[in-house]
Amino acid sequence: MSIIGTTPMIVTAIGVFVICIIYSGVLSFTDSRMLPSYNFVGLAQYERLWNTSRWLISVNNIWLFGLLSVGLSMVFGFLLAVFMDQKIRHESLLRSIFLYPFAMSLVVTGLAWRWMLDPGLGIQSAVQGWGFENFRFAPLVNANTAIYGLIVGSIWNSVGVTMAIMLAGLRGIDGEIWKAARVDGIPAWRTYIFIVLPMMKGAVFTAFVLQCVGMVRVYDIVIAMTQGGPGIATQMPAVFVIEHITDRLNVGLGMAAAMMMLVPVVFLLSLLAFVQWRGRVAKEKAL
After folding, report:
1. Phi and psi of 75, rounded to 5°?
2. Residue boundaries of the structural domains of the chain
3. Do 45 and 29 contact (CB within 8 A), yes or no?
4. In angstroms, rounded to a whole number, what is the distance separating the alpha carbons of residues 219 and 226?
């Protein structure tokens, strides 16, 4: 592809991403309210941000949400990849089924799980209709359990793509490894965990970083399932940013929160690039 053909993509990347990020950073140092202002206030917005209880709750929620969602998605994704690696019948069909949730809009995913967890429409209502009248399962209506309902919906949406990345890593393992493990009498589960998994660290790390980046900016599924409630029990940083820029008309504080969200994303992407660079350097030295 010639430089002329790539010019529109370069302009878009610079104009939409780099310039907008810089502009957002500039606004985070101002007292902008409904409209942008260039009355600079230094770090006042950041100080106010970290003294705002709603933001602190958002940060605590994203840690819990991210830890459980990413961790369980990685575990279930690897187990599904191992299952698919057994040369099962109709593998293509099953792979499509597992990947289908990832192809769906997060809004659709959130609405589907909201209905399933609704006490009057979903699982609780169905089980009670079968005669178990004392059965209770409505996590979204309880402030102490609502975030766990979000985690279930998030795992269902993301586990398929994790499986696909892990499966690609598994398929890249030399068949001689498996033959040697069988000759040595190593059980299959130990081969997967202690031999194969360390060898596919590139696929594991890629899946992990993609999951983490998605968790930092999670918004759609929260709005669709709980709208940040009950109360602010499932408030997330992205929800905080959008609310303060649009509803609360506090652009300066919203941009400060957005820049704080950008920090872990940049760190994770930089770490991914560094690991890939180290991998290429190691391969070149090996050759």
Report:
1. -65, -50
2. 57-249
3. yes
4. 11
Amino acid identity of residue 89, one-letter, is: R
pLDDT band at 287 (very low <50, low <70, confident <90, very high): low
Amino acid identity of 220? D
Share of the chain above pLDDT 90, in %: 37
Domain 57-249, classified CATH 1.10.3720.10, yes or no: yes
d(CA 95, CA 160): 8
pLDDT number for residue 6: 65
Tell me 122's DSSP state.
S
What is d(CA 192, CA 250) in angstroms, rounded to the nearest whole number? 51
Radius of gyration of the chain from its Cα atoms, rounded to whole angstroms: 23
Grade residue 93 by pLDDT with cuts at 50, 70 and 90.
confident
Rounded Cα gap, residues 105 and 119, in angstroms: 24
pTM: 0.85
Tokens 């459980």: give the residue: 68
CA–CA distance from 286 to each of 13, 175, 272, 279 (Å)?
35, 21, 21, 11
Q: Measured between alpha carbons, how far is 84 from 88 in angstroms, rounded to an integer?
A: 6
Q: So what's the pLDDT on residue 145?
A: 92
> CA dist 189 to 16, 76, 79, 85, 136, Å?
47, 15, 11, 13, 37
The amino acid present at 127, given as its one-letter code, is V
- pLDDT digits 0-9 by tens, 260-278: 998 888 888 788 788 778 8
Write the single-letter amino acid at 219. Answer: Y
